[in-house]
Amino acid sequence: MNEGECAAATTSDTLRPQATAPAPNKRRWLVDMVLLAALWGSSFLFMRIGAAEFGALPTAAVRVGIGMLFLLPLVFWRGQWPALRQCWKPALGIGILNSGLPFALFAFALLTINTGLAAMLNATVPMFGALVAWAFFGDRPDASRSLGLVVGFAGVAMLAGRGAGFHEGVDEGAVLLAIGACLAACVCYAFAASLTRKHLGGVPAMATATGSQIGATLALALPALWLWPEHMPSLRAWLALLVLGTACTGFAYILFFRLIENAGPARALTVTFVVPVFAFFYGAVFLGERITQWMLICAVVIVAGVALSTGILKFGRKRAPAA
Question: Residue 148, class by beta-carbon neighbours within 10 Å (0-12 exposed, 13-18 middle, 19+ buried)?
Answer without folding.
Answer: buried
